[in-house]
Amino acid sequence: MEFIDTPLPEKPSEEQLGLGLLRSGLKLNHLRMIVAIDDHKQISAAAAALNISQPAASRMLTEMEGILKAQLCERASRGVELTQFGRAFARRARTILLELHEVDREITALKSGAGGTVFLGTVTAPAISLAVPAIQQVSAAYPGIEVNVRIETSNVLARELLSAKHDFIIARVPDDLDPRLFNVQEIGIEKACLITRRGHPLAEKPVVSLSDLPSYDWVFQPPGTLLRRRVEELFIAGDVPLPTTVVNTASLLLTVALVCSSNAIAPIARDMAEFVTENGGGPSEVRILNTDFDIDIKPYSLISVKGRALPPSAKLFYDLILQRARMLFPDRADR
Q: What is the tens place of the pLDDT at every residue in 145-154?
């Protein structure tokens, strides 16, 4: 028997595979589209996010599936879901877009001679106790670093972090997101309180109970947010009716404006309430109610995305916040 030594075909390199996709017509807009579909779970919503028509978005999806020779998404009860091929493509696309974003940041910093840019998202309480002192330290020691801060709820911030809109966030991982996507460093517990206007019927009461509260208007964070849920849990546990007249808003400014112009009550982070009442430059219109119950919220954390390295300026800012958190909450920040 004669054996013929036939060489195996060479396995294409990663570079050749990448060039093959580009030669087949894969474009940057395709990467943006698959990430938008992954974020919004609807073709129409993804199209709106990219400011294109739904038919154009559907054509792009068909183009991507033709180029990759795989089905990327399938219909679901409320929109679409990515297939295993779609999820793999979206994950890689997100990384590529992030790297391009970092190229733009680095080149811009080099051109301007600045020290870099930091994008931070945070819930309300640590914005006052952690972010502000870190900003002051960075501004004094590294005046070339530009810091961008967005205050929002954890639900919004975590999704924006995955979309590379923030370097890291100070928040909590929402229950509906996979915690394995994140690096999480718990750093502190958030305490909240109830605020009213000066002169409110409850403002001068020595101690306010849950039973005193339902008859007034309320300003709440949007349904499903942690602070909102915690206050509702207190009402339910105390067998007290939930407030019926409610305004929902994530805006602290609007919350304070509504409270000061009515008999409404609002729960907000205690750090923020104390800042508002003590730093108004005169007699504050806001009062903190003295309640016979505490409003403690789930601990918040420093959160970044696994596998995504922080730029040097963001790492510096992250370390400063962690250092201050260890001073304020020594029993938590070292966990």
A: 888 999 888 8
